[in-house]
Amino acid sequence: MEEYLSEYENYLKRENLSANTLENYKRDVKLFMEYIISKNLDIKDVTEQWGNRYVIELKNSKKSLNTIKRNISSLKKFYSFLVTKGEVNINPFIIKTVGSSKRIDIKYLTYDEIEKLIDAPDENTVKGIRDKAMIEIMYGTGIKVTELINLKLDNINLKDHFLLFNKSEEERFIPIGRYCVNIMKKYLSYRKELDKFQSEYVFLNVKGEPLTRQGFWKIIKEYAKEINIDKEINCTVLRHSFAMHLLENGADISVVQELLGLTYLNSAEVYKSAIKNRKIVDEYIKNHPRA
């Protein structure tokens, strides 16, 4: 197990953490290693059940709440590192909370609602074509709203069906489907009617300026009201829908992580947990006589 700790320490050093934070992370992981050795376990044998047991051990040890939270945070980070390296398949500390009943609530649309939202804009107008292209590309790629409004012409390759972002010297490749390609081709053919200043940005308002986050949110909200979607609509709902629908249809969690541009796998695991919770509710409603 020492080799894992040594590699992890080198990994942490590259994150430019303070000496105190680095020492805390190392100490928390060492303490956990001592625990699993006492249980005759290997790092790779630790399940969510063992993660729960360890959290209970920490609570029973009369450590402060902040210390317990830090331990859990340290171990989440450690196992995210191991998952990324391919040493383990799951993070047993993925959604462990202490001293809080807060539940992560993923708001997303059903596929039928998504189709209605995409079909809502009027394709007989340039604005409608633009709006449909924005909704299609948001749902079809899972990019953030900030990435959408900052999307530039040289980020798009419609011939080979992909978007390419460059961030901190790393390239992020995102495939785009045929529906998205088709509406983007149509929009780009009409975009010149909006482009008054030879802008490098893809999506422009009627003044020829790049759309803002608030502008996009208003557009989505108006169409949702028009088609009677009785749900809270915000700037992340399409991104959440993208992730949830991929996972519901069997996509690998690590692929979803990569597509969303998430650094750690545990960030994407939140969607997986939401699907599991929804299935539990669906089964209860379906099978309980008093549901």
UniProtKB/TrEMBL annotation:
Q: Which GO BP terms, alphabetically?
A: DNA integration; DNA recombination
Q: Which PROSITE patterns match?
A: CB (PS51900), TYR_RECOMBINASE (PS51898)
Keywords attached to this Swiss-Prot or TrEMBL record, sorted alphabetically, are: DNA integration, DNA recombination, DNA-binding
Protein family per UniProt: Belongs to the 'phage' integrase family.
Taxonomic lineage from the root = Bacteria, Bacillati, Bacillota, Clostridia, Eubacteriales
Any one GO molecular-function label of the UniProt entry:
DNA binding
Q: Pfam families annotated for this entry?
A: Phage_int_SAM_1, Phage_integrase
Q: Where is the Tyr recombinase domain?
A: 104-285
Per UniProt, residues of the Core-binding (CB) domain are 1-83
- The name this protein carries in UniProt is Tyrosine recombinase XerD
Organism of origin = Clostridium bornimense
Task: Say what the protein does.
Answer: Site-specific tyrosine recombinase, which acts by catalyzing the cutting and rejoining of the recombining DNA molecules.
Q: Which InterPro entries match?
A: CB, DNA_brk_join_enz, Integrase-like_cat_sf, Integrase_catalytic, Integrase_recombinase_N, Integrase_SAM-like_N, Tyrosine_recombinase_XerCD
Keyword Membrane tagged: no
